[in-house]
Amino acid sequence: MDKEGPIAILGAGGKTGTLVVERAIAAGMQVRALEHNLPDAADRIEGADYRQCDVLNDDLEPMLNGCGAVISALGVAFAPRTAIDPPPLYVDGTARVLRAMRKTGVDRIAVISAAFVVHQPSVPSWFRFSVVPAIHKILEDMKRMEGLLEAERNLKWTAARPGWLIDLPFSGEAEVEAFTLPQDCFRCRHADLAEFLVDAIRDGSWVGQKPAIGKPEADEDESLIALKDELETMFGNH
């Protein structure tokens, strides 16, 4: 990082956010873990400074004051209600974070977007024509979030575009390319995404870019049948 101070991690209690906190602590970084609903004490990562934070309503300046960079692991759950009417985390939440960054002098941020905000040639057609339209409004909000970053002057930003996230152990084999997913990559492990975000902040890499992150997985994790089970759980069709 160019600037000294802890890294502020928004959404630090979520699945990816928790892994980002773990990765940052393991890398020797100071962490300010910000979360709307703080994890129980037993679930917190040792060494992180946890603070309760409502991105849409709280004063964010005290939360970011003294920090060297921000990672936003904020996300909207894919469910029928949020697909129809997503909460304004990506647009309003990010806009509020950017205002607080300007006022506190923080100029480096990495956020989680999604590979599917643009056409992905490596994505199976059944996914492109079924799942992507179902989450269209969420993806549009992510695209608007990317636009906010691009419009911000003097901001060092990275918008990570993971493939369809999957909860498998860290592989260290994620492939990264600009804009679109690497060939034969469709999914991305939460843990691999967390490593990418922390490394991008620590190394100062991928500034002003929208890198797509993915990894080929076994057929049982990428097939229509595998995704059918996931999507039925997600959308409540049992």
How would you sum up this structure, described in words?
Helices cover 39% and strands 18% of the residues. By secondary structure, the chain is of the alpha/beta class. The protein has an eight-stranded mixed sheet with strand order 3-2-1-4-5-6-10-8, with helices on both faces. It has a two-stranded parallel ribbon with strand order 7-9. Helix 1 crosses helix 7 (190-203) and helix 4 packs parallel to helix 6 (136-151). The chain has one domain (7-235): Rossmann fold (3-Layer(aba) Sandwich), CATH 3.40.50.720. It is built from nine helices and ten strands.
Compact description:
This protein has 238 residues and is an alpha/beta fold. Helices cover 39% and strands 18% of the residues.
How do the strands and helices of this protein lay out in sequence?
Layout (H helix, E strand, L loop, with lengths): L6 E4 L4 H12 L4 E5 L13 E4 L8 H4 L4 E4 L7 H5 L4 H16 L3 E5 L12 H10 L1 H16 L4 E7 L1 E3 L8 E4 L8 E3 H14 L7 E4 L4 H4 L1 H12 L3
Parallel strand pairs: 1-2, 1-4, 2-3, 4-5, 5-6, 6-10, 7-9
Antiparallel strand pairs: 8-10
Q: So, the CATH homologous superfamily?
A: NAD(P)-binding Rossmann-like Domain
Category from helices, strands and their pairing: alpha/beta
Secondary-structure element series: EHEEHEHHEHHEEEEHEHH
Strand order of the largest sheet: 3-2-1-4-5-6-10-8
CATH fold descriptor: Rossmann fold
- Count of extended strands: 10
List keywords for this structure.
Rossmann fold, 9 helices, two-stranded parallel sheet, single chain, 238 residues
